[in-house]
C-alpha cells in the first residue's frame, strides 16, 4: 500500500484529502507545517507528497526545493495543491521540481485521479530508466547507442534534440516548463533563452514527421509528450 504525505495547514482540507485517498486504498500521513513535513518525509519516505504552497513558516515552494535537492528524497513525486492559479505560480512550482499541480477549490475525485496518474507515471519512469530501449507512439530510442527511430526508420537528431526527446518519452503525460527542458539539455543556469527550446522543439517535431504531433505545447507553461494517442 502506497503512503502519501499530505502537507496542509487547514485541517478540514487535510481531512477531506486523507479520507478520499484512504477510500481509494492509500495510507496517509499529515503535516501542518513545512518544518513538520521535512521531519516526516525523512522518517518514512512517502510514495508521494501532496503539498500546499501557502504554509506557516517554510512555504511550499521552499519545501519542494529542499526535497528535490536531497538525493534521498528527490525521487518522491510532489503534487502541489494551491489557491494560487496564476501562470507564474504554476511555472515556479514546476521548475522547483513538482510533478503536477491542482488549484483550490478542487474536486476530491479529481485529486485522487491525479494521485493515481502520478504514481502510475512514476512507476513507468522508473521502469523506463532500467531499460536499454524505449518505445512510444512508434518512436523508438536506443538509450545505449543514443539512436532514435520512427516506425523503424532512423532519425538524425542533434544532441540537444535527442536529450529533449529522451526526457519527454521517459516522462509521458508530464508537463515541463521551458526552463526545466533547458536544465535537462544543458544543466542548471545555462545562459540560453526560452526561445531556444521552442526552436529545438520545432526542429524535433519536423524530424519526427507525423509523430511530432505527440509533442504537445501546453499554453503558458511548456511542453509534454502525450501519453495516449487520444490525449487532448
How do the helices and strands line up, and which of them pair or pack?
Blueprint: E1 3-7, H1 11-23, E2 27-31, H2 34-44, E3 48-52, H3 60-69, E4 78-82, H4 87-95, E5 100-103, H5 108-129, E6 133-136, E7 139-142, E8 147-150, E9 153-155, H6 159-170, E10 176-177, H7 178-186, H8 194-208, E11 215-218, E12 222-225
Parallel strand pairs: 1-2, 1-3, 3-4, 4-5
Antiparallel strand pairs: 6-7, 7-8, 8-9, 10-12, 11-12
Helix pairs in contact: 1-5, 6-7, 6-8
Q: What do you see in this structure?
A:
The chain is α/β, with parallel strands linked by helices. Helix content is 44%, strand content 21%. It contains 8 helices and 12 strands. A 5-stranded parallel beta sheet has the order 2-1-3-4-5, sandwiched between helices. Strands 6-7-8-9 form a 4-stranded antiparallel beta sheet, covered by helices on one side. Strand 8 (147-150) and strand 9 form a beta hairpin. Helix 1 packs across helix 5 (108-129), helix 6 (159-170) packs across helix 7 and helix 6 packs across helix 8 (194-208). The radius of gyration is 18 Å and the shape is elongated.
Amino acid at each position: 500500500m502506497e503512503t502519501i504525505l499530505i502537507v496542509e495547514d487547514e485541517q478540514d482540507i487535510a481531512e477531506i484529502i486523507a479520507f478520499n485517498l484512504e477510500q481509494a486504498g492509500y495510507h496517509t500521513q499529515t503535516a501542518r507545517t513545512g518544518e513538520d513535513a521535512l521531519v516526516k518525509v525523512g522518517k518514512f519516505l512517502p510514495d508521494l507528497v501532496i503539498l500546499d504552497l501557502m504554509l506557516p513558516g517554510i512555504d511550499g515552494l521552499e519545501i519542494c526545493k529542499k526535497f528535490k535537492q536531497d538525493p534521498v528524497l528527490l525521487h518522491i513525486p510532489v503534487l502541489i495543491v494551491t489557491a494560487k492559479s496564476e501562470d507564474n505560480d504554476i511555472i515556479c512550482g514546476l521548475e522547483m521540481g513538482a510533478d503536477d499541480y491542482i488549484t483550490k477549490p478542487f474536486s476530491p475525485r479529481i485529486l485522487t485521479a491525479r494521485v493515481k496518474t502520478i504514481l502510475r507515471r512514476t512507476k513507468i519512469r522508473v521502469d523506463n530508466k532500467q531499460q536499454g530501449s524505449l518505445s512510444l507512439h512508434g518512436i523508438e530510442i536506443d538509450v545505449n547507442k543514443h539512436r532514435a527511430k520512427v516506425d523503424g526508420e532512423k532519425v538524425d537528431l542533434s544532441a540537444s534534440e535527442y536529450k529533449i526527446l529522451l526526457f519527454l518519452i521517459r516522462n509521458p503525460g508530464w508537463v515541463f516548463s521551458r526552463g526545466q527542458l533547458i536544465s535537462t539539455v544543458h544543466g542548471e543556469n545555462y545562459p540560453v533563452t526560452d526561445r531556444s527550446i521552442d526552436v529545438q522543439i520545432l526542429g524535433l517535431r519536423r524530424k519526427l514527421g507525423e509523430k511530432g504531433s505527440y509533442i504537445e505545447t501546453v499554453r503558458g507553461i511548456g511542453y509534454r509528450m502525450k501519453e495516449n494517442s487520444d490525449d487532448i
